[in-house]
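Bench notes, afternoon.
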Amino acid sequence: MSKVNDRIAQVTKQNIENLLCTEDKRRRETPWAYRAISKFTKLCGTWQFLVVNLAFFGGWIVLNKWFTDFDPFPYTFLLFGVSLEAIFLSILILISQNMDAADSERRHHLDLQMNLLTEREMTALMRLVVKVAEKSGIGEEETAEVRSFAHETDPAAVLLQIVKAEGRRPSNPPTQSSA
């Protein structure tokens, strides 16, 4: 098993700690209703929740079939309860998905900003490499590729290039037939 460089391990540990602290702070600042919804939807996505539902609905049917007849077949009250549960679970899950999408968007923005910063840093390094190469007498043919990357990249231009490429693609790309 390979070991991570001690300096890299120290930096990544600090970065992880900073991100976790920021996430914890954001969670604490989230209104209690949203925190409750998040916990509830996490609970609903477990096998225990499935077992509780199966036991409840099975018990309801058994109770009404063999012991008492307060909700005879076709179990109108049970169907009403199941419908209400489905409605509220659907709404709560949609709210939870919206919260998760907002978290994902926030992480996406962080990732984008870090990538843009890295691109600027690399451009600065490329310029420095070109200058060092010039001072060292290294010919232009050996540094041609580095020189081609030693300028800032316009993210908006790259995005426009992506949009144009997407516009040229058919909306439903053809699939290969299994002939």
